[in-house]
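Sanity check

After download, print the first record. It should look like this:
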Amino acid sequence: MFKILTLNNISIVGLERLPREHYEVASEIQHPDAVLLRSFKMHDWPIPASLKAIGRAGAGVNNIPVDKMSAKGIPVFNAPGANANAVKELVLAGLLLTARNILPSWAYTRQLQGTDEELAKQVEAGKKQFVGYELAKRRLGVIGLGAIGVKVANAALALGMDVIGYDPEITVKNALQLSPQVKQALNIQEILTNAEFVTVHVPLVEKTRHIINAERLKSSYKGLKLFNFSREGVVDDEAVCAAIEEGQVSNYVCDFPTNQLLAHERVVTLPHLGASTKEAEENCAVMVADQIRDYLEHGTIHNAVNFPEVEMPRESEYRLLVVNSNVPHMIERISSAIAKANLNINNMLNKSRSGVACTLVDVDCSITEPVVQEIKDIEGVLTVRTL
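Expected structure tokens:
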């Protein structure tokens, strides 16, 4: 029986992927094998010795101490792309809010008073100040062509926009899904200089912090409309507000309110609504629950932010999973311990990523505790499990 601790509310559709005859799921549970969470901040959370995996029902993992988990041999799974459509639709809403002056015009009509005839006259007199423009034939720049960025780019093309994109690390899968009509930029500055609208879709890591900053905004498109439904911190809010005051940036729409942004009339802030749809929450929960189950039962690893992709068809009911530091001679030592116990290896797979390596071994008979302990005692081994 595996024990799963939920640190946030997780969609029941996802939890139902964990069969109750093999999984105990609760918001309070001792010695959990895995944790499922959304926004819970784990950096000061005491890590149970029993913990084998973490599942983040969403894309960003800034609330999880990933390096600390890697050092303990614990994979951190996320759900890339599961909320992509929800975020894409919100970006499109942001484009339309900006282009058609929807929020200021709504605020104007809400304060009108008088009879219906008087209201009609006020509407006709006041609507001139809210004249907008159409999105067709205007240029959108997309920084980050992951699952969300690709959907945004393709959707903007469908609206008739001209789209340029930048992502030096685009995957083959996302490249195949990206419309060939999307022009490729050589760098971020090319996007900012040539696009009237720019939307950012990158994870928050050290190299992406404040990728939209004062220096880059100085030579951006005059009257730039900027959108951030990615992560707080990828855009320098102070620099954007200064660029608005200078007339370099026209509007800023983001999902991360701060006091500075709330006070600015040309900034629209939303309460982190990017993935806040029922469908997105269900998609994320299903994806991460399936990944946790595959890892606990079979050692399969998909969409772990700190571990390699690992999948090997079972050739035996007896399987061993070893997670270790990525150092030389490790496979040799693991194989030696297995051979010493007269176990025949039916199949073996070893994958590595940065400083972590994972080895799956299928053998022909039961793996005893002394064998497991001998492998655990190898210098550099982080975790060992029989599956």
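If your output differs, re-run the checksum step. Summary of this record's structure: The radius of gyration is 26 Å.
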